[in-house]
Amino acid sequence: MQFSKSTDYALHALLHLGHSERGNNIGIKELSAILGVSESYLSKIMSKLRQDGIVRAVPGVNGGYELARPADQITFLDVIQVIEGRQQLFECSNSNSRQHQLLAEEGAAERDQKQERPRMNGCLVEKVMNGAEQHLHQYLREHTIQSVLDEALKRCNHEVNKK
Q1: Closest residue by Cα to residue 10 from 33, 44, 40
Q2: What φ, ψ does residue 75 adopt, rounded to 5°?
Q3: pLDDT computed for residue 54 by the predictor
């Protein structure tokens, strides 16, 4: 699995907005120069983030973008789902295969012998993949723009104290 460059730019743009000392408002021209990406490309990314309520556009000569909610309320999962979409990462395309049916029948026969209650005959591969996706989502929910800013500050202070 690989996330797009748009996700990379979106996360870095939000970090810059969260770190901004000018009232959290940065113009698209400045932000695109900081990130090394074209204004038009970044504008499309910021538009998606704005539509989803993650950033707010500030109109006027000194306008730009700012975070629409506190940095500790913007999770990595929020951003990834806005940019990449909210689709499931894995879908079993083999549930009608002979192998899949044999595994389901074998499992049913074993349960009959043990007189167990029948279980879902869902795809076992899909079960593993969905579990992995749930863990990934949980991890990404636990990391916010603020948690990364805090880590950056901690590293910066550590470097200053080393000298």
Answers
A1: 44
A2: -90, 160
A3: 97
- What percentage of the chain's residues is helix, strand, coil (to nearest 5)? 65, 5, 30
CA 21 from centroid of its chain's CA atoms: 25
**pLDDT tens digits along 23-66:** 668 999 999 999 999 999 999 999 999 999 999 999 988 889 99
> Letter for the amino acid at 14?
L
CB 10 within 8 A of CB 82: yes
Which range, 18-22, 51-55, 113-117, is most confident? 51-55
| Distance of alpha carbon 129 from alpha carbon 131, whole angstroms | 5
**Rounded CA gap, 77 and 7, in Å?**
10
CB atoms within 10 A of CB 3: 14
- Cα–Cα separations (whole angstroms), residue 163 to 131, 155, 156: 45, 13, 11
Beta strands in 46-107 (DSSP E): 55-58, 64-67
DSSP class per residue in 27-73: -HHHHHHHHT--HHHHHHHHHHHHHTTSEEEE-STT-EEEESS-GGG
- pLDDT tens track for 74-89: 999 999 999 999 888 8
How far are the Cα atoms of 90, 93, 98, 109 from residue 47, in angstroms, in the given order? Answer: 28, 34, 47, 55
Q: List beta partners, residue 144.
A: 75
